[in-house]
Amino acid sequence: MQRKKPWWQNAGLRIGIALVMLVLLGGAATGVVITQKAPQQPIEFPHNFHVGTGIPCAYCHSGAETGPVAGLPSIETCWGCHQQLRTNTPRLAKLAEYGSTNTPIPWVPVFIQPDFVHFNHRPHVAAGLECKTCHGDTAGQTVAEPIPGQNMGWCLDCHYKMAPENFTRLSDCATCHY
Amino acid sequence: MSKKLSRRDFLKLSCAAAAAGMVLVGCGPASRYVTRVPYAEMPEYQHIGKSTYYATTCRECPAGCGLIVRTFEGRAIKVEGNPNHPVNRGKICPRGLTSVQGVYNLDRITGPVMQGRRGKAGGQAISWDEAVALVKKRFQETKGSEIAFLLGAMPDSLYDLTSELASALKAPAPVRYSALNYLEGRDVWLAVASQYFGTPSFPYFDLENAEIVFNFGAEFLENWLSPMAYSRGYRGFRKGQLGARGYMVSFAPRQSISAAAADEWIPIKPGSEALVALALTRLAAYARSEFSPEITRQVDIKAAAEASGISEEKLKELASRFAGSNRPLAIGGGSALAGKSAFETASAILALNATVYNFNQTGGVFLTPAKAPSERFADVQALFEKMRSGAVKTLFIHGVNPLFDLPAALNAAEAFKRVETIVSFSSFPDETALASDYILPDHTMLEGWGYQTVLAGTTRKIVSAIQPVVVPLYDTRSTADVLIAAGGLPYKDEVDFLQQKILPLMSAGGTFTAPELPSFWAKFLQYGGWWQKSADYAAIDADALLKSSISMPEPHPAPADQYHLVVYPTQFGDGSGANRPWLHETPNPATTVMWNSWVEIHPQTAKKLGIHDDDVVRIRSEFGEIEAVAYLYPALRPDTVALPFGLGHEALGRFAEGRGCNPARLFPNASSQNGNLAWADTLVSLSPTGKRRPIARQESRHGVYGDGE
Amino acid sequence: MSEKVEAKKWGMVVDLDLCTGCQACVTACAMENNIPYTGEDETAYGRGLHWIRIQRYWKGEYPEVSPTHQPVMCQQCGHAPCEPVCPVYASVHSEEEQINVQVYNRCVGTRYCANNCPYISRTFNWFDYPHPVPESYSLNPDVTVRRRGVMEKCTFCVQRIRHAVDTAQAEGREIEDGEVMTACQQACPTGAIIFGDLSKKESAVSQAARSQRSFRLLEELGTEPKVVYLKGGGNYGG
Amino acid sequence: MAAETKTLSATHSASQEGEDLRQEHLMHDPKPREEMNGMVMEAMQTTSKKYWIALAIFGLGVLILLFGFWGNQIITGMGVTGKRRPVFWALYITTFVFWIGISHAGTFVSAILRVFKAEFRRPFTRAAELMTTFGLAAGALFPLIHLGRVWTFYWMIPYPNARWLWPNFRSPLVWDFLAITTYLLSSTIYLYLPLIPDLAMARDRSTGWRHSIYKLLALNWRGTEAEWHRLRKAINIFAFAIIPVMFSVHTIVSWDFAVSQTVGWHSTIFGPYFIIGAILSGVSAVVMILFIIQSTMKNMKYFIRLEVFDSLGKLVLIFSMAWAYFFFNEYLLHWYGGYQAVRDLLTFHAQGPTAWVWYTMLICNVAIPWLTLWNRKIRRTPLAMFIITTLVNVGMFAERYTIIPLTLGEQRFPFDWGAYSPRLTDISIVIGTFCLFIFLYLLASRLIPLIPVWEVQEGQMAHSTRKLGKGKVTSVAELE
User: Fold this and answer.
1) Residue D175 sits in a domain of what CATH number?
2) pTM
3) Cα(D101)–Cα(D99) distance, rounded to whole angstroms?
């Protein structure tokens, strides 16, 4: 009897599977990279510099203390200072362009939650949490970088560690999902 | 031959499978980041992530309820009632609630349009400069007497402005009407009040404090005069603040929600309301051992009982109950005040009140302290007659849709053809807008300025503020601004006009005032309007009424094969609400039908005619015919059929077009002596068409009526 | 289930003597909670997504006929039949607010909860309902827009509860009676709906709930609903 | 068929009697081992053009009707089916219960009859067990198909996760999930164990790809005494162990309904009621399959004799009576309970616009078996048995349809009643699973020996006749 190669040793099949896997894995890798990488911002905002000069976070992200959303600064906020300050770098030239035409800066929010999660900054700020607990050390970043794995387990973990006595309340589904 | 799957091969394959699995499970959206655009300049009162609430006034019907609109990042999210507003006290009806679906409607006109051909959608977009120039040109080139303004019921500020403009142009005063008006019999009350009390003001019925109420067809919970104010009144009436739970008797051929809310429903024969009211007046006077008033001289109790189908004993019992009560009240509206003898009916109802001396009494009848502009149908008829004769060269239309809501017998479309230029200010592509030459879209309700004078449902003077809660979504422009710019009126713009108009209010003793106009204006907007601290009604006197003599209306029983017609407005109001999906999705309170019209037929009648539920029925009057789906309605006289008003559009966008039927096609082009549209005398015949079209109802037919589905 | 004493017990009273069946609550609920409309064919087939339905029955024969109106929304049972049957805890009791929570993102769509709800107060997203621009501009940002395949139901406007709790907490005070208003209560023209904390003796809602007219729907099932009806308007329970 | 009308009571000589016994009972009609093996192999390897056409049609059916429509349903939403408020479960769950019911009979016939040593079971245990496995495969798809968001089905599996959430072990659906996976696994093993010697037999008689497959599956079976011993022991353990699993699975399926508060479901008799219904439909399905096998496959008339139809017919009759008892009992309980909503519901079933379903159920499940199956002649007419059992299955489908959509449509609030009408997708997917079942069965019939040859041979070895007075009686030797 002629010795036949079993089907799984067929070269064509193997190449085909390899190609499909390459595409899928490549896609997956790209997806992972895209979702875990800081997005392209219209202006490469240097957080490190601004934090370094001692500007409080809430100066630009003013909503955090009063409401659910911290917010992204409007052109007014930036232009308020930078009209007077140094307009000589390329980044500031971009800002000047937005500022002089009074067009909003299309910021890309980095820390985002899905639609079905209702995160509220105010109680977290009121409980004395520092911004960097969740947002990382922005003093070392230019544009804000996402923290990987900020999922439900991440929230619960913190809630459990920080306030075990209130855990019933803080793990209630209706706290975030409605 | 045997080939073993080697361990290495197996590992390779399983790794590949695992990787594929991970890819399939782990693939999220390709990009999770979405650009978000913050404000370039943060508007006043806006905070990041927080809602801002603005007070304004509802323009959906003439009642003038105060609203608080929740806005979030520049968008109107939710309409709520203004809890401080004296008309509605924070309450709101379905139509007001869906007004955000008016602003964010999918079928709005996005900018000024020059129609290529009348009646066809689409046309050439023009700029606002061109539009204003065009209106200006029409003002200058047309003789004053050949200009006509046809306005809807809202808003009042625009009506005042247009009136000023008309007199400046030496044009006839603007004609104003609304379908709600003739369906509820509003103009009849105005006529009666002018006749007997000397002022064209609406009576205010103090339902809240009444003890026994006789209701002649008024749909006070749905659309009548000021539904939110009267709903609150109904609450007080039921709660019995001054004593026992109130007792209500409803005289109506069809059970509306208001009639159903009564403790007793008397299916009175259509057209006999005046007789019954007069008979009750006479019997009530008798029960109080008083002389029967002059006005009741002609009435014969026996004849009234016969004409109405209510036994004499019952009438006597009701009258003595009414007369014996501490705070009796009679109200009327709807189809009772929409016939040829509407004036007599309204007078009789007032006489019934007068005979128990409840004028200006708690739980009685007052006169609202605001003069209402005339909305007589006879004026509309006259205008269209003028158009037909070619004496109108330029017609301006705002806030009303005559091609839809006027009786087809009036043949408005024919009259339009004789008008050289028609300019519509409609925000939506309704029938009339499409039939005009230019559409210069006004802002919708939540985008525009104005004020609304509260005409009914209160005993205080109220001027309710309308302010924009969001920036206009499209390239629309306030009609007032267009008219001011084109007509050369002495105002800078609409806001200037409004501020000048509210100037007198600063010293009129309201709940607030301010030393100078800007702060007064700010407060006016903040509170949602200006109103007096307490009631300020003109005392009314019953003498003239009781001493008058009115002609006895002839009852007109329907012949065997014909049926009385009751048409009632629904949540769609005058029909302009028909383009809002959630008004369609809101079930009708009585029938739970959604998204379509129906014709209510009594089950006995239906059986006699061989009509079943969901059969398409042809309804024919002397003036036209329509087809509607049958709904066997148990709470209706067998000799009457009822039709909801508001659907049956030929235009007005995707949600309205071709949906339901329009009862205005059955109406006569007839006004009574006092100028109201006399549609309630219409007789119709029914015939099954053999077609079936199951309508969407929330109720289970099988569960509620016990018949199969 | 051990209930904490301090747990808030949101509850609602519907006075059937005042309810006229006008449907304002139905529309208000839809506007507040991003409820999509489904169109004629779908509503005709019983797939409307109304969170409140006003049950209208007829009583008597012509001419003594009259309708009764009874708004039925999720009764927020204390002992809810929908909760134990959900395999993934998507229908779950909120220990904090003592209401039934539907967690949309956890729902896998078995629809078992809906079958087991004796009040049939749950609706299902049969499709992804479109929210076209600009209609979508009026969507409430505090309420999740549900996608296809999940259950939904009346939440007692939990987003408003959360907002009030959050505000009260930030201001360091208790929630006042009447501070949380559900959308239906806010709109109801005759004020037939009262909402508040049933655990407080003096709140408007618990006073009304103690009325002699009060009854609960299908009380015999032991579901302990948080919605109390007051008899009236020809509607005497059941 | 020659044996049709022969009975043992007529005038007979001794040889005639022996001939009768041989004709009647497979166990008394032994053939040489080689010949019998050959017959089974021949039946398995003979494929006609018709077979391939059927396979292609049902394969396409699976592809289009099941997976095509299911895919569309996943993408578009559950709304493509006819479900509505308040009928949130409908044809899918109906068919699910139907398949789970069908799958019962395999175990029942095989395990219970094995435990009770009913000898007529021998030729068809394999066919019944295959039916169990494939019925479960078809049925177990439905809990997935009916999910609104099937892509999240794995949340029902208990596994540690970032959300700190487990499935709700109080939910009958989780019990269901566990029970069905358990049953699927155990019934597959129970199918596989007795298959091993037959696979070895097939391995020794085949070449090419078949050979390699059989070799892999036969686990190097050599037929030594030790192997036989272990196999018998294992089969015996499984036969006893699977019986409670079988009962519990359908009880748990019934609890999906019985633990709810739904009117008409909340009943304590649902457990046994469902099991009896399942066995009734399952045994009927076995008869249907045996008829098809017997009339389409080669050499099967030898294995599947009239005695099989006769005995199964008796079983169907008995279970039909038991079912009727429970049916009556349900009415009795609710009558005694006196709850208005249930009374309305039961009246609606019998008198509402869908009463025809109810009547179909009663006629097919009670009237037809009772009127026909008492008759030995009918029981011994395979075609008649096929028609009767098909009708019984139609009746059982109607029963489940009555219990699910028709009951859900009429709950406590008449305002919310609603009638469900299936749409194209529901019907397609249901037909698709029938296609899947048939497709798998068709494939298996040409891959697996449908007759457990060794069991038949074992039985034939054990059987002998003994003279007792004037007649001969069967005697069975204890082999195990």
Assistant:
1) 1.20.1630
2) 0.90
3) 5
